[in-house]
Amino acid sequence: MGLAPSASPPDLNDHGTFEVFAAGVNIGVETFEIRVRRNQIEAQGDVHLQVERNGKAIEVRTSSNLLLDSHFDPLSYTWSQKGAQSSQLSIDFHTKPVNAHYKTVNGQDDRRDFKLDKDVIVLDDNVVHHYQLAVARYDQAKGGTQAFRAFIPQEALPGVITLNSVGPEAATVDGEKRTLQRFLLTTELAQISLWVDDRGHLQLVSAPDAQYYAMRKK
Predict the structure, then answer these.
(1) Which residues pair with 69 in a beta bridge?
(2) How many domains does the structure of the chain reveal?
(3) Which pLDDT tens digit goes with each residue over 153-177?
(4) CA 6 distance to own-chain centroid
(5) Residue 208 in 3-state DSSP?
(6) Long-range contacts from 85-88, C-beta under 8 angstroms, 24+ separation
(7) CB neighbourhood size of 214 (10 A)
């Protein structure tokens, strides 16, 4: 059964695995855990991808950790990439302006300040479970199209997204047909469909223009 406008708040505690596809090819997995403790929300994920660049197969491993308060306001974010090209970033949202520290693939340090709203939504590149936290911000009672400030840390890019509840839809997840609630997330450059179950747990992500797709495994 899909979510109704009067649905209860999402069950934030969650963990699982997403299979990630690009141009119809399975390129890897993301494992993640979202947990609530001490009035904070912690979202941690590990991504392992096999991608092709310039005709060569490259293995990419990344880890991320996002800490929010009980109102979904971000407190800190860290991300790192291991492998042939290592890099990392860390963001302290307590400071005003927000301070971000990047260590680039060539080993250089890059520090930047950003004027971000307190309740900005963090949606980083190739981090699937961040979409689940975005949907959790949607006010089901209010409905309609809702706008939020967003920030993509790896691209150092602030922006605006909108979320709209499309309604219940039939979808197939890991071979099983289910009725899920579909949301449409829109940015300046893309439209992304998100399907969640009745607990608010993300099951499918589809960005057709980018030929990107992610599906939760059982």
Answers:
(1) 40
(2) 1
(3) 999 999 999 999 999 999 999 999 9
(4) 25
(5) helix
(6) none
(7) 22
Is residue 78 situated within a structural domain? yes
Residue 206: domain span: 14-216
Tell me whether residue 209 is in a domain. Answer: yes
All residues at 6 or more sequence positions from 152 whose CB lies less than 8 Å from its CB, including other chains: 123, 124, 125, 159
Q: Cα-flanking dihedrals φ and ψ of residue 77, to 5°?
A: -150, 135
Average of per-residue pLDDT across 4-26 = 82
Position 3 confidence tier, pLDDT thresholds 50, 70, 90: very low
Q: Percent helix, strand, coil in the chain (nearest 5)? A: 5, 60, 35
Give the max Cα distance, the chain: 51
Q: Is residue 5 part of a domain?
A: no
- Can you read off the two tokens belonging to residue 43? 């979202």
104 phi/psi in degrees, rounded to 5:
-80, 170
The whole-angstrom separation of Cα 80 and Cα 64 is 7
- pLDDT band with cut points at 50, 70 and 90 for residue 107: confident
User: Tokens 């961040």 label which residue?
Assistant: 130
User: What is the pTM for the complete model shown?
Assistant: 0.92
